[in-house]
Amino acid sequence: YAGSLEGPNVGGSSAGEMVYRLAEKRCANFGTCESGETGLSNVNKELLADFTAGEALLKKGLCHAVRPIVDRIIKQMTVPLVQGSLRYAYKVGESISGEAKVGTDRSQKNAAEGAVFTAAVLPLVHECNVAAAKTISDEMKFGLYDQGVFPDFAAVKAAFESTYDCLGITCADVGGLSDTGVAAACSKTSPWPDIAGYTPGSDVTKHANLDLDQQALVQALKGGTPNWELAEDWYAVGGYSLSGKAPNGLRTMKGFSTGAEGKMYNNCDGCPYKTFSAFYDYYGDFDYADKWVSAALDGTNMAFSSGRHGPNDFATLGDAARIEAVKKGTAYMNVWMYVIREFEDAIDDCETCADGLNCNEFSDSLSSESPQYNAVHAWDEGVAFYAGSLEGPNVGGSSAGEMVYRL
To answer: What is the largest CA-CA distance in the chain?
Structure first.
């Protein structure tokens, strides 16, 4: 990666000829050095830490622990290749209104550099998004310059950006060739809102809205006289989380539990799921969470079939106990288990996807036509239910949150 010419010191030497030197050159172009356009490249800074960590683990014989480090190294090594492709698409690109510098450094050499950089990274892009890879190749391949055909820089940049999540890199990793305009660093690589810092690869907005049902349920139980009937409507009928598969077009927290036997024990590819099985073995009921919450809402006596952790006579326990049993039970029993169900379902989908052989770490999560889409979507659903919409887009969420993330 570095070669001998970089010498012994961090930051290397301008005499370097390998990928280490490319990362240093491109960080100055894209503002991704430690101090923007100067200092050690962020890529080489991250890689030095990973190189050191990998060496230490191998010395200890911890072979399995090195795999995640290799994965991180590949992601960082990809960044300069993307930057190189973009830089030369910009230099020789077709003129763009309002972008005075695009296409102002056209030469056979620069066109060739762009073709080579894209050749070095296209297989990874293709694994992520076939259409994006075709766009980049069609715009950047050898032979076009000699025909007087220049790349559409904006199209090339957009194609690369559509695969950043899949490649494991970010807008900040790649940076931008200018502070404003089409060459500026992108600010987002997903068309859907982040969930407490997580960037979903599919649209799970409706799923995340389930926490609005929970919020409304909690609100119905506030005050001196809890509105049990209204709270039960939010629990059993729902209102905010649309679902085309649900009988009334709405997913519900109650349904997470009443449908658990089929989805987690009997009728799934990986059934019975290990975690759900432990809960079933303990309580003796597939719908243990619903038995608990429904009895608390109705103010009735309930007992689990196993006889454990009960009986619970909500007719005599009082409103305070009933309220806590409901609002904590819905989030931390019904939803908690269903989050795990979605993650298990993601594994099932990945292992049994349409063409099997292509189910790998390079999931094309942005295309519903991809065989990996279902797996990524199920995973995203798990995150959406775990956090909900009220946590907002940022890491750390919001105090308004109502789901397990807030706990």
So the answer is: 86
Alpha-carbon span 199 to 196, nearest angstrom: 9
* Tens digit of pLDDT at every position of the chain (407 positions): 999 999 999 999 999 999 999 999 999 999 999 989 999 999 999 999 999 999 999 999 988 888 888 999 999 999 999 999 999 999 999 988 878 889 899 999 999 999 999 999 999 999 988 899 999 999 999 999 999 999 999 999 999 998 998 898 989 999 999 888 889 998 865 678 899 999 898 889 999 999 999 999 999 999 889 999 999 999 999 999 988 676 667 899 999 999 999 999 999 989 999 999 999 999 999 999 999 999 999 999 999 999 999 999 999 999 999 999 999 999 999 999 999 999 999 998 888 765 544 443 333 344 455 556 778 889 999 999 999 999 999 999 999 999 999 99
* Rg over CA atoms, the chain: 27
What is the C-alpha separation between 61 and 269, in angstroms, rounded?
36
The strand pairing partners of 301, in sequence order, are: 313
Adjacent-strand bridge partners of 33? 36, 41
The type of residue at 391 is E
Helix or strand (DSSP H, E) at 221: none
Please tell me the distance from the alpha carbon of residue 373 to that of residue 379, in angstroms, as a whole number.
10
- Bridge partners for 195 per DSSP: 198
Question: Whose structure tokens read 């960044």?
Answer: 79
Give the closest residue to 74 by CA, choosing from 28, 37, 128, 33: 128
Q: How many CA atoms lie within 13 A of 317 on its CB side?
A: 20
pTM of the shown model: 0.60
Question: Alpha carbon of 73 to those of 44, 111, 220: distances in Å?
Answer: 10, 28, 51
Q: Which of 253, 245, 264 is nearest to 294 (CA)?
A: 253
CA atoms of 28 and 44, how far apart (whole Å): 13
Which two tokens mark 18? 């390998």
Residues with Cβ within 8 Å of 378's Cβ and at least 6 positions away in sequence, in order, are 342, 343, 345, 346, 348, 349
Tokens of 230: 């209204």
Name which of 329, 319, 330 is nearest 214 in CA terms.
330
